[in-house]
Amino acid sequence: LGIQRCHRALTPKPPQGALLESLVICFLEFRVKEQVLHTAWRKKDVRYDGKRIYFDQGYLPEMLKKRKAYVGILNELKAKGIRFRTPHPAKLKEFFDGDTKVYKSAAETAKDLKKRGFSLEDVKEPDSTAL
């Protein structure tokens, strides 16, 4: 696959018997990384030694906070069966009633969805200065 390097993520080591341990893999080619991710996501259930393996992009901490702000919104859209995507960096692309709408923040998304009758909690943007 052309892996340049692979190491544990810079997080505290999980306790003995814990299910999750994050790894960082650096591929030599971007194309190969994308192919691995898309293949794993298409398969949905990848296992090694009977344990499920999850694949995701590597995001900076501030990006993770912005993406995390969308969690309640994404759960609501899933429950209603509405298609969506979360393009980079931290946006939401919604496909609703034959229309496509792109939101640039979770607060903007929540405000618009509330106008359309969705029941959502108030979403606050993460404080980027705290990072």
Question: What features would you describe in this structure?
Answer:
With 131 residues, the chain is of the alpha+beta class. The protein is built from 4 helices and 7 strands; from the N terminus they run E-E-H-E-E-H-H-E-E-E-H. Strands 5-6-7 form a 3-stranded antiparallel beta sheet. A two-stranded antiparallel ribbon has the order 1-2. Strands 3-4 form a two-stranded antiparallel sheet. The protein is elongated, with a radius of gyration of 18 Å. The protein starts with a strand and ends in a 16-residue tail after the last helix. The mean pLDDT is 81.
Mean pLDDT: 81
Uncertain stretches: none
Strand order of the largest sheet: 5-6-7
User: What's the helical proportion of residues?
Assistant: 25-40%
Radius of gyration equals 18 Å
Please indicate the percent range of residues in DSSP E strands (runs of 2 or more): 15-25%
Order of helix and strand elements from N to C terminus = EEHEEHHEEEH
What would you call the shape? elongated
Oligomer: single chain
Measured between the Cα atoms of the first and last residue, the distance is: 35 Å
- How many helices? 4
Number of strands: 7
Largest sheet: 3 strands, antiparallel
Q: Structural class given helices, strands, pairing?
A: alpha+beta
Quickly list its features.
131 residues, alpha+beta, 3-stranded antiparallel β-sheet, two-stranded antiparallel ribbon, 7 strands, 23% strand, elongated
Provide a brief overview of the structure:
Helices cover 32% and strands 23% of the residues.
